[in-house]
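Input/output pair, single chain:
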Amino acid sequence: MIGIKRVYSEPSARDGARILVDRVWPRGFSKERARIDEWRNELAPSTGLRKWFGHDPAKWTEFRRRFRTELTRFGMMDELKKLVRLSRKRTITLVYSAADEEHNQAVALKEWLDELSRGAHGFHDVTV
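Output:
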């Protein structure tokens, strides 16, 4: 199972492995308080893409497309497949710091991981 949660929300044992998917560490937040198991900043949008998007809902569809292109171009498919395999063994929670809970990289990343898990886009080799 894959969940998403703001870093500012209270951590829970039900979160499983908490994976921060922000390019930069959340301001004013200690690692102990965040209870992050892994910080995967390479799975976050580039600084340029993040700034272009600015959490503008009107840019959401294009952001998601560009984000996927970035992850593919930067060779992150193997890392995404690893997350899918991990999520089949235990719960993982993609943690983010954005204020917008509907339009952020964790939502976009979870959507793509769910598609990969279902074998969408020809990625049927994502097996346990």
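The chain has a mean pLDDT of 92. The two ends are 13 Å apart (CA to CA).
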